[in-house]
Write a structure and sequence with these properties.
The chain has 424 residues and is of the alpha/beta class. It folds into 3 domains: 208 residues, Ribonuclease H-like superfamily/Ribonuclease H (Nucleotidyltransferase, domain 5, 2-Layer Sandwich), CATH 3.30.420; 93 residues, HRDC domain (DNA polymerase, domain 1), CATH 1.10.150.80; 83 residues, HRDC domain (DNA polymerase, domain 1, Orthogonal Bundle), CATH 1.10.150.80. α7 packs across α9 and α18 crosses α22. The chain is flat. It has a 6-stranded mixed sheet with strand order 2-5-4-3-6-7, sandwiched between helices. The chain has a two-stranded parallel sheet with strand order 1-8. The chain contains 22 helices and 8 strands. Helices cover 50% and strands 9% of the residues.
Length: 424
């Protein structure tokens, strides 16, 4: 796409969108809470209703990530003009959702923060052919608050009832007030989509949004994270490889228990317990359960499991201990650049300044203008060809969308020329 076609037609307003003079509390769905679809007969009727509707389909899910190991959907909410709202319990219907898949598969889906819901929907073979992400649309339009409730209030004048998003949605039967909350999550997604689309069109950003939505829709599923145990909260306090090995062993033992029992890992053993045990290095089970954080009944019952993991770590040869720092295929943290490569630090400083000014000019977050990791990688080890054309090619290879390349290639090319060592 040509650069001039990606430029907005008009500068965004300082405060995008229209002001709403009156706010209405929305505590129950306008049409009431529909019954939960949980058997094939009800599913067929719901699918027929959705197929008979018109326009895009609002979609949302409820998970139980704070309670369960899996990230599966325990409720799927859908709404379409002319069809009303449908609540589907996918657990008893797993593997038998073909009527629903057929009814919604070719339509545009409207989701809020789609990347959070698409993986669990894909597990059910529910995949959109196109989508509109209202959270991402809000970011591109320049709204400082892009939670669903904030956007609905700003754009439509309704205040959604808060409540049960972090609840245990694996619970059965689901309480009536939870189902009302779930139905409200899709109640206004379709008018919100229309309002945000109009805002993006007015700002000349609708094509940008279309490219971003497609990137979200077609993103590959995330692969396994290398050394996920290094994300244990509080691990920054530990540096000795032997203690890091203890964290790793306890994390792996916990993960196995959590996975086999489908319980959230933090409910099996809190991160702070892992760090405390790795730091203290108890000599035996008695010393382990003497730690206050291991004094509960559940931890005493599993004390032998945790102690076995600690002994395994203690007996590892030095050659099998983890490195003090995590492996990385990317550049070092930016705060180390000035010492390791002053020219790269100068490039990054110039790039950040140019991109910040560009993002402010166009009224969107700088991280949506260009992914920070791609900026760092480009500045740390730039291509030999640092012209606008060469920089554009590097950005495309790094996954930047056409609108991002058109806006940022020129200022980044200039930043890559900033190779003079900064003054001390």
């Amino acid at each position: 796409m040509d650069a001039h076609r990606c430029e907005p037609d008009a500068e965004p307003a300082t405060e995008p969108g229209r002001a709403v003079s009156e706010i209405t509390e929305l505590t129950t769905p306008a049409e009431g809470v529909p019954p939960v679809v949980a058997d094939p007969t009800a599913l067929r009727a719901a699918a027929d209703a959705l197929a008979a509707g018109t326009g895009p389909i609002a979609v949302d899910t409820e998970r139980a990530s704070g309670y369960r190991y899996s990230a599966r959907a325990y409720l799927v909410q859908l709404r379409r003009a002319g069809s009303g709202t449908v609540l589907v319990d996918p657990i008893p219907l797993r593997g038998r959702l073909a009527p629903l898949i057929e009814a919604v598969g070719d339509q545009e889906w409207v989701l809020h923060a789609a990347s959070q819901d698409l993986p669990c929907l894909a597990e059910l073979d529910l995949r959109p052919s196109s989508l509109f992400d209202t959270e991402l649309a809000g970011r591109l339009a320049g709204y400082p608050r892009v939670a669903l409730g904030a956007l609905v209030e700003q754009q439509l004048g309704y205040r959604l009832e808060k409540g049960h998003g972090a609840a245990d949605w694996s619970r059965r039967p689901l309480p009536a007030d939870w189902l009302s909350y779930a139905a409200l999550d899709v109640e206004l997604l379709l008018p919100l989509r229309e309002s945000l689309e109009a805002e993006l069109r007015a700002q000349g950003k609708l094509e940008w949004a279309s490219q971003e939505f497609e990137a979200v829709r077609t993103a590959p599923p995330p692969g396994p994270r290398p050394e996920p145990w290094r994300r244990t909260s509080g691990i920054h306090r530990l540096h000795a490889p032997r203690k890091l090995a203890a964290v790793r062993a306890l994390w792996l033992a916990r993960d196995e228990l959590a996975r086999t029992r489908d319980i959230a890992p933090g409910r099996v053993l809190p991160d702070k317990a892992i760090i405390e045990a790795a730091q203290t290095q108890p000599a035996d089970t008695t010393a382990l359960v003497a730690l206050p954080i291991f004094g509960g009944r559940a931890q005493r019952r599993r004390a032998d499991v945790w102690m076995a993991a600690l002994r395994e770590a203690a007996e590892l040869p030095n050659s099998a201990l983890p490195a003090s720092s995590p492996p990385s295929d990317g550049p070092p943290p930016p705060n180390r650049w000035a010492d390791r490569d002053p020219e790269a630090a100068a490039r990054l400083s110039a790039a950040r300044a140019a991109l910040s000014a560009l993002a402010e000019r166009h009224g969107l977050p700088v991280e949506n203008l260009l992914q920070p990791d791609l900026v760092r990688r480009t500045c740390w080890a730039p291509q030999e060809d640092r012209s606008v054309t060469g920089t554009a090619a590097a950005l495309r290879a790094g996954g930047a969308r056409p609108w991002q390349v058109a806006l940022t290639a020129e200022p980044l090319s200039a930043a890559l020329a900033a190779t003079t060592e900064p003054a001390s």
